[in-house]
Amino acid sequence: MDAVIIDSGGANLASLQFAFERLGARAHVSNDARTITSASRLILPGVGAAADAMQRLRNSGLAALLPSLTQPVLGICLGMQLLFQRSEEGSTDCLGILPETVRRLQAAPGLPVPHMGWNQLNRLRDDPLLEGIAPNDYVYFVHSYAAPVSAITLATADYGIPVSAIVRKGNFWGAQFHPERSAGTGARVLANFLRLE
To answer: Does the pTM exceed 0.85?
Structure first.
């Protein structure tokens, strides 16, 4: 198995599997602790509310397991937000792997919340996950909450203010956008992830 997609109860699991299949990779969906611990790479997807997702992870025992993982882990959309300390969405305690609090986006003229659509990446630092990604490449977002820009931010997107689009701390990466819906750029991010050691 090239990667294991953690079954966090989200609706985007099949589309992620198809995205890996298009890359010639095999991705299995599981919430089994032994399968997750032994996987070479893990994806933590997520859609919906932070509190509901964290409750599912706690009920399955995965909330305690995930921070101890040592292989590459990629959180996607809500899955990225769950890696942080807290979310303003329901004042939710998250996994605490990454510092900072995820905050609600502020609506403004021309900038509705949720932020849905294509937006450009602004690279701040080089990283193997960003190999081959051109400056200002577009990726697809669907979110109402975002992580602030900090020392762990690899790339930002602008939505009235800069927000973290890609983050990394050690073996944990996060993508606020949906790589599986981001055409060639998203496919490259996923292919890069499969090459991480």
So the answer is: yes
